[in-house]
Design brief:
The chain is an all-beta fold. It is built from no helices and 7 strands. The protein has a domain of 36 residues.
C-alpha cells in the first residue's frame, strides 16, 4: 500500500508543482473533496483552490479559477487555467 501520491500541477506556461504528497484537496460542482493514496481513477473539473498536503502538518494552497484534475494509478495531474 502506498502512503503517498504523486502530484503534478501545470498551467500553460510552466510546471507549478511536481512532487510526492500525502493528499490533495479541491472543489468541484459537488463541493470539497480529497484525493488520498490508492484513490480510484477519477477525473473532474475543479475550481477555487488546490490544497497540497505535503505531510501531516505542512500544506500549501494554490488559488485557481478553474482546472482539470485527473487521478490515474496513484498519480494526480492537474491542469489549471483551461
Amino acid at each position: 500500500m502506498h502512503h503517498n501520491i504523486s502530484l503534478a500541477i501545470r498551467n500553460k506556461q510552466r510546471l507549478l508543482f511536481d512532487g510526492t504528497v500525502k493528499a490533495v484537496s479541491s472543489y468541484n460542482d459537488r463541493g470539497f473533496f480529497d484525493i488520498l493514496p490508492e484513490h480510484q481513477n477519477f477525473i473532474s473539473l475543479i475550481r477555487d483552490k488546490i490544497i497540497i498536503h505535503k505531510d501531516n502538518i505542512d500544506k500549501e494552497e494554490i488559488k485557481i479559477n478553474k482546472g482539470v484534475l485527473r487521478v490515474y494509478k496513484n498519480k494526480v495531474e492537474i491542469y489549471v487555467g483551461v
